Amino acid sequence: MQNYYQILGVSVSATEAEIKTAFKKLAIQYHPDKNPGSKFHEEHFKKVSEAYENLIDSEKRTVYDLKLVFGMMDETPTRPTAPRNYAPPPPVYRGTQAGRPQYRKAPPETGETIKNEGFTNFQKIGNILIVVACLVMLGAWVYSLRSRYSAENYLKMGNYEMALSYDSSNSVAWYKLGIRAYENNDLPNADLYLQKAMEFSANPEPILFFQYGKILERRLKYTEAISYYQKVTQTNPGFDSVWFRIGYVQTTKKPDYSEAITNFNKALVINPYFFDCYVYKAVAEINSGNFEASNKTIDIALGINPKIGYVYYLRALSNLAQGDTSTACTDFSNAVSKGYKKAKSEIDSYCTPKSSPVVRKTKKK
Length: 365
Prior knowledge:
- By secondary structure, the protein is mainly alpha-helical.
- The chain has a domain at 4-79 and 116-156: Helix Hairpins (Orthogonal Bundle).
- The chain has helices at 4-8, 16-30, 39-56, 58-74, 110-157, 160-166, 171-183, 187-199, 206-218, 222-235, 240-252, 257-270, 275-287, 291-304, 309-321, 325-337, 343-351.
- The radius of gyration is 39 Å and the shape is elongated.
């Protein structure tokens, strides 16, 4: 009987996500299109596909697990029981020996009989121990299956603590707990739970590294956060949000404006309508003194969403830095009208005409 778990290279307690990941990896490695003309790769790909189809379906997997256990019991080798002593049939004499008295073979000595019977009893004890061991294995297997499916049921209900009480290595439950702690601003526990999720995940998904990077960012560990974001880019370079997070940290937390602009551009190649990416790219360009580029970036952002007052405020700062006070004052006014009240103080400073001081005339004595 084929062992589907061994074919996919996963444990019997593997989750659906781990099974999918293992299948994708093997499918790429053994797919006939990748190995044209190779009979070995074609046959192994069929085995991998069969294993995946049986393990990804929960009902098929349960039936297979039970078959696998009973198959192990059926295939357990047993030694044949030693035959009991018996008297062989008397020899038949023909020809010149006909008519001679025939004698039966003497029975074995008493010691030999005891020896044979002792060996038989030992064999019986061995068989009993094998059966007991198989029953223990079966019980452990059934308990493991029950725990795994109970954990999956509680996971679907959103009771992650109960899921972990049945299966403490359930990486999905740890991940969900970590996200909930992050949303509740419980950063120490969020950090701990996401580490557990990565520990118990055979092939951590990129989203795990991404969420852990956000936790590190909130905990002011910016260098570590960028390193985890970069792990995501190595496995999933088409994830626009991770390029944005790297650029955001490099713009606002650990200034490196040139690198930030490069990373923002990578995100915008993937998603040309990423509004926040345009806004923070403009901030990086203003801080690096590239005002013409920042104006172009802001114009694109306003084309996507013209209702955000902060964006007008940014363009006003860029124009003010270039000495265009008139255009800057127009943008400051637009920023205030769109709800960004901070721009009002800038209007008072740069756009309100200053009245000439009143000179009082003194009477001559």
